[in-house]
């Protein structure tokens, strides 16, 4: 009896998994890329990569403690962290000189740590918390147009980490510091700087004035202490930090679900030692692939800015495209199944698949020579189907 059951179990296991590939790694640059996965499950694995960011210049002595960067209308802005004046500085990207200073009249620099922006506002993060005892975490919201002024006021967003119960913590030995945030879809996302366990938690906060008690919405074992973050578009973000041994790193996050930044691809780039870069504390995009890194003065290393470019670490071809309108009506439901019409597809077609909602391949044809493919009802299972076509390097997906 046992001899029969074990082989049967093995047979059912492999039978169940043959032809199922709804979820998997969808990044062609990953070691475990699955070209026929429909949903990215965040499992992509990559080779270890060292990235040598290009040094541009030393920063002006006014910003020895550069702790945040943003790119606004072709101009680079930064700030200093705790113990400095409540000011924003416009930087010449070639020389590192301060071109303009904007004073904030109603928002003291207790410990400013990062900058973020959306289409209407700049956000100044006053949430540095090395000692873990702050109860006055806040963000100042500044209108973009106010960058033209010499003095401006901000609106205040106050928040607390509602999961913190103990405020008597060892300095730089706790998990309730914050030095990085960005904004997406009218929400601020804060990333904790966990001195104790080298992980990070994510808190979501409305990007509008008010007072909020926040609970974590996500976490990730990031392997260091987070010092900076930025996002561009809907699905590309960077998280930067360093280890306690002074090794600087950057995570490139892409193809994630909205608000769930660690749900997609997570590629780690080693940036080198703080002895070379300084204390990397600021990052921002200025285009769809790259931007600037700012580093504070660190021991004998001067404050400086670098450029980064991620094009070599992002797939040049999106994993999947919706079916172009030029293909016409490719698939239609019939009373006894599906009809797939390939007559409008003029390019070389390598593979056709009809896949059920649970990932089972119901029909697969390589290099089809017919223009009409019929799938009968008896071949089908479930209620939702996807049609996938491989043409050259592109995979087109359409819900049927």
What can you tell me about this protein's structure?
This protein is mostly beta strands and 400 residues long. Helix content is 5%, strand content 47%. The protein is built from two helices and 33 strands. The chain has helices spanning 2-17, 274-277; strands at residues 23-24, 39-40, 49-50, 54-58, 66-72, 75-80, 87-91, 98-104, 112-117, 121-126, 138-143, 151-152, 155-161, 177-184, 187-193, 200-206, 210-214, 216-220, 225-232, 236-242, 247-254, 265-273, 279-285, 290-296, 304-309, 321-322, 331-334, 337-341, 351-356, 361-366, 372-376, 385-391, 394-399. Strands 3-22-21-20-19 form a five-stranded mixed sheet. Strands 5-6-7-8-12 form a five-stranded mixed sheet, with no helix packed on it. Strands 9-10-11-13-17 form a five-stranded mixed sheet, with no helix packed on it. The protein starts with a helix and ends with a strand.
| Counted beta strands | 33
**N-C termini distance:** 44 Å
Which strands sit side by side, in order, in the main sheet? 3-22-21-20-19
The fraction of residues assigned to DSSP E strands is over 45%
Mean pLDDT across all amino acids: 88
Structural class: mainly beta
Low-confidence stretches: 4-21
Question: How large, in whole angstroms, is the Cα Rg?
Answer: 25 Å
Shape category: elongated
Q: Helicity, in percent? A: under 10%
What is the count of DSSP helices, taking H or I runs of 4+ residues? 2
Largest sheet: 5 strands, mixed
């Amino acid at each position: 009896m046992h001899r029969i059951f074990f082989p049967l179990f093995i047979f059912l296991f492999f039978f169940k998994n043959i032809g199922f590939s709804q979820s998997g790694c969808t990044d062609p640059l990953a070691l475990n890329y699955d070209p026929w996965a429909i949903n990215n499950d965040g499992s992509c694995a990559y080779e270890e990569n060292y990235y040598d960011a290009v040094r541009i210049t030393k920063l002006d002595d006014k910003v020895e403690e550069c702790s945040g960067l943003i790119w606004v209308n072709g101009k680079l802005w930064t700030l200093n962290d705790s113990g400095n004046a409540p000011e924003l500085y416009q930087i010449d990207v070639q020389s590192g000189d301060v071109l303009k200073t904007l004073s904030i009249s109603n928002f003291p620099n207790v410990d400013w740590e990062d900058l973020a922006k959306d289409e209407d506002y700049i956000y100044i993060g006053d949430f540095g918390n090395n000692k873990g005892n702050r109860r006055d975490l806040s963000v100042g919201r500044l209108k973009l147009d106010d960058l033209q002024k010499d003095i401006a006021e901000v609106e205040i967003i106050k928040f607390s980490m509602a999961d913190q119960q103990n405020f008597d913590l060892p300095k730089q030995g706790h998990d309730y510091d914050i030095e990085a945030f960005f904004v997406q879809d009218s929400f601020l996302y804060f990333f904790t700087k966990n001195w104790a366990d080298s992980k990070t938690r994510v808190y979501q906060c409305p990007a509008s004035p008010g007072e909020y008690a926040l609970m974590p919405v996500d976490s990730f074992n990031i392997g260091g202490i987070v010092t900076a973050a930025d996002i561009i578009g809907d699905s590309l973000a960077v998280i930067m930090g360093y280890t306690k041994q002074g090794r600087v790193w950057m995570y490139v996050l892409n193809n994630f679900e909205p608000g769930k930044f660690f749900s997609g691809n997570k590629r780690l780039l080693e940036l080198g030692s703080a002895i070379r870069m300084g204390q990397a504390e600021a990052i921002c995009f200025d285009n769809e692939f790259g931007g600037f890194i700012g580093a504070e003065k660190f021991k004998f290393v001067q404050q400086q800015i670098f450029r980064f470019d991620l094009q070599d670490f992002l797939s040049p071809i999106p994993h999947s495209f919706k079916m172009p309108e030029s293909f016409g009506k490719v698939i239609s439901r019939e009373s006894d199944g599906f009809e797939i019409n390939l007559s409008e597809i003029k390019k070389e077609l390598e593979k056709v698949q009809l896949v059920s909602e649970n990932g089972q391949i119901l029909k697969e044809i390589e290099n089809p020579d017919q223009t009409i493919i019929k799938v009968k009802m008896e071949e089908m299972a479930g209620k939702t189907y996807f049609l996938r076509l491989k043409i050259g390097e592109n995979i087109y997906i359409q819900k049927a």
